[in-house]
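#onboarding

Welcome to the new folks! Below is a worked example of what a typical request in this channel looks like: someone posts a single protein sequence, and someone else replies with the predicted structure as tokens. Don't worry about understanding the tokens yet, we'll cover that in week two.

Example request:
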Amino acid sequence: QVQLVQSGGGLVQAGGSLRLSCAASGSISRVNSMGWYRQAPGKQRELVATITSGGTTNYADSVKGRFTISRDSAKNTVYLEMNSLKPEDTAVYYCNADLFLLGIVSPVVSWGQGTQVTVSS
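Example response:
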């Protein structure tokens, strides 16, 4: 079993900053990529940023230059630093991990519980 527990988020004014954290715990053998996705009301879930086990990052065009994803592999934790926030960044943010469980040969994908980010204009 694995759990991804998110923290951070909340309400901020446009131009402000927030930091999200997501820690994976459980019977984990290895964590491959980790990432953040978001879902705004009435819209599909979309990719925000991902980071591989080697540290290679990928960002949605809409957040490039404003958001930074990082990870602490020793803690199986991924972070999302969000700066210069805009009202259109308002969404529920979900973390995601592609990982191997102990004794299981196939990777699994696990999701965090989601956290609300609201940016007021």
